[in-house]
Amino acid sequence: MLAVKQTVDSEEAAIQSHTGRSMISVKDLSLVFETNDGPVNALSNINLQVNEGDFVSFIGPSGCGKTTLLRVIADLEQATAGEIKVDGTSPKDARLNRLYGYVFQAPGLLPWRTISQNCALPMEISGQPGEHQQKQIDKYLKMVGLQDFHKKFPWQLSGGMQQRASIARALCINPELLLMDEPFGALDEITRDHMNMELLRIWQETKKTVIFVTHSIAEAVLLSTHIVVMSPRPGRIVKVIESPLPRLKTLALRDQAAFHELASEIRNALANDHAID
Ligand SMILES: Nc1ncnc2c1ncn2[C@@H]1O[C@H](COP(=O)(O)OP(=O)(O)OP(=O)(O)O)[C@@H](O)[C@H]1O
């Protein structure tokens, strides 16, 4: 018997609340890409509830639609059918109101701008006053441990430091929601461990809601309050698992039975849907 408090099957894929406020609500959502080769069914009948303060990981095989779902939440793709609300509004309004910050796999920092100037960019675009920009930059560069590197250019920093700068850039607009697409996928294991712990600390400190795309079962277990297991294309939600582990986790947790039991629960959900052999 696995030590998982609660699992919810795809039919009722609902994530239980900690605060009660719905941050993302997805109902019967499907998305078909029209291509030269014919239609590509990327997402099929997705139902999902994410509440304020949750840390939700999407995990599934390559091409199952994790990024597409993230992009629908961010209003970068349009659903073909179904409904989606982000903090009670349309994804478009959520985007226009700068409700979310987006962190990509590659840091995407502009090489001709310093770290400070890179962090300023989204605030410049939204016309925020210079004094406020500086306050936000100081606050979040300190939070990610880069306060002494604000004058450096991206190419003068390591990959992990660049990714921390991109997280600071996303946080500078003070979004309710952090959308992260495999942000640590390109990092070595030691740096990734460090970044995972840093992210947990930042999440605790800022109380943001986080949606996190990953290929790593261990990373999903280490970070998440909820794990959304997806099937191969067309992407469906196979299972939503609420983690029985504490919200404040340490790397030492990886040696404990509860960690392995949860990892095994995820692995089984993936395998049962032929996502992995
Ligand atoms: N703009 C697009 N036009 C056509 N097909 C697309 C487009 N974007 C994504 N797809 C297809 O939709 C499916 C889902 O892609 P998506 O990138 O969301 O998967 P993923 O789970 O994030 O994959 P990975 O883990 O490899 O990053 C794939 O088959 C992909 O080829």
UniProtKB/TrEMBL annotation:
Q: Where is the ABC transporter domain?
A: 24-257
The record's section on SMART domains has:
AAA
User: What terms describe the molecular function in GO for this protein?
Assistant: ATP binding
This protein's UniProt keywords = ATP-binding, Lipoprotein, Nucleotide-binding, Transport
Is the keyword Acyltransferase assigned to this protein? no
Q: Which family does it belong to?
A: Belongs to the ABC transporter superfamily.
Q: What is this protein called?
A: Sulfonate ABC transporter ATP-binding lipoprotein
Q: Which species does the entry assign this protein to?
A: Agarivorans gilvus
